[in-house]
Prior knowledge:
It is a single chain. By secondary structure, this protein is an alpha+beta fold. The chain has one domain (6-119): VC0802-like. It has 3 helices and 7 strands, in the order ββαβββαββα. It has helices at 26-29, 78-88, 111-120; strands at residues 6-8, 13-18, 34-38, 43-48, 57-67, 94-97, 102-107. The chain starts with 5 loop residues before the first strand and ends in a 5-residue tail after the last helix.
Amino acid sequence: MTELKLKVLEETFSVHRLNPLMAIPNAVTDSDVYFIGQTREELSIVCFSDIEVPYARTESDWSCFMVVGPLDFNLTGIISRISTILAEEKISIFAISTFDTDYILVKHSDISRAQKVLSDAGYDV
């Protein structure tokens, strides 16, 4: 498989966990990029770090790789390969998928090292 192109988004992100009954702040849905997931147990929001999400348990300071897409649904192992490469370097990830592509978040302090190891593995970063 030809290695995919990865783009580092400029913004810094935060991952928030809320009670599933909490309202989603308008500032989140008014922004250009955000991800929301809800289960019976939690409401998770990933958004720009400058957006305040009250009453949330928050993990801040994430950088984001976007796999340049759109990706075909027949492709397999995209997140698996990237996460394996990063795991071998002890770099934790938070992965998100959309219809068209995948996003891999790493702590901002690891972004330079993550770019290097992914580039060394053949990715166009």
